[in-house]
Write a structure and sequence with these properties.
Length: 192
């Protein structure tokens, strides 16, 4: 474990997908339903210029529920990465968890150490991309995103208002509430 930690030199912005990058609709799995939230391209470009790797971390219970397949998810993910690439934004990696402990069918019905609020996907990314969590940030639209970041040990936690509604008083201390990814990019500029 120590060897992994000591070699971790990269900083990352861990980004939830639905409600942060694209408009929250029920189980988005088709390109025609994928609607980028205004300003996300420019925002993530700024974040990348600041030296952060952009890593998407997404629960995909729609796969567990049988609404779409892992293949469908890969297809829309490649399309999304292509759209970012056209704007000069490289998404370093995309992690997803296809399970649901109650509503999953077949092999997808199980408790997963990767499904948020568990920190597994973030910890996998830390290992795969040598991420230093003390220099990293996470942005989500649900408290379960924030909880995953907290459990993993991500230093800066942002909750956006572009997705799932929440009441400000339930947001844990230390979490920064922001309008959208644009504001995250602004805030990251002033960190350190
Ligand atoms: Mg979300």
């Amino acid at each position: 474990m120590n060897t992994i930690v000591s070699g971790n030199i990269n900083k990352a912005l861990f980004v939830d997908r639905d409600g942060v990058i694209n408009r929250e609709k029920d189980y988005v799995c088709r390109v025609e339903d994928f609607e980028f939230i205004a300003g996300v391209m420019e925002a993530l470009k700024k974040v990348a210029v600041l030296g952060y790797k952009i890593i998407v971390i997404s629960n995909q219970a729609g796969i567990a529920r049988g609404y779409y397949s892992e293949e469908d998810f890969h297809r829309i993910t490649e399309w999304m990465r292509g759209e970012f690439r056209k704007k000069g934004v490289e998404v370093t990696d995309v992690y997803y968890d296809p399970t649901h402990p109650e509503y999953g069918t077949g092999k997808y019905k199980r408790v997963s150490a990767r499904r948020k609020p568990a920190p597994g996907m973030i910890l996998d990314a830390v290992r795969d991309h040598r991420i230093n969590l003390q220099q990293s940030a996470l942005v989500g639209d649900k408290l379960t995103d924030i909880e995953a970041g907290r459990r993993a040990g991500v230093k800066h936690l942002f909750l956006v208002r572009t997705g799932h509604p929440f009441r400000d008083e339930e947001v844990p201390a230390g979490v920064k509430i922001v309008e959208d990814l644009r504001e995250v990019a602004e805030k990251l500029k002033n960190i350190e």
